[in-house]
Amino acid sequence: MKSSRDEEASMEARYQEQDSDGSPGGPCRREFHHPSVAASVAWQLVKTAGILAPLIITELVKDNDRRWRLIRISSVGTALLSQALYTSRVTHDRWTDRVERSPEGQRQR
To answer: 61-86 burial, b if ≥16 CB within 10 A, otherwise e?
Structure first.
């Protein structure tokens, strides 16, 4: 049976990063290339709200004119919010790409 010290040593050896020339480096840190989880959750909530809004409005509002007006407003609101989230994500991605390509960004790694 392995001791905890042996297990730690084997885990440490397993997670050693290798540079492009094959020499061992520091601990392995893989870059995560997807947008942040919070933005993905927010986007999913906006889409869900856009899908459910007409159903909820139909159940709660009995006046036909007011019901259709609220449905149109909610549709436009969720579309604008969805577009704002998308624009924010694209702007953030472009900014991080620009930072990574700049000489200062290369030195920070």
So the answer is: eeeeeebeebbeebeeebeebbeebe
CA 21 to chain centre: 32
pTM more than 0.70: no
pLDDT digits (tens, 9 = 90+) for 92-103: 889 888 888 887
pLDDT in tens, 72-94: 999 999 999 999 999 988 898 89
Tell me how far apart the alpha carbons of residues 7 and 28 are, in angstroms, rounded to a whole number.
17
Cα separation, 24 vs 105, in Å, equals 23
Q: Closest by alpha carbon to 11, among 27, 29, 31, 32?
A: 27
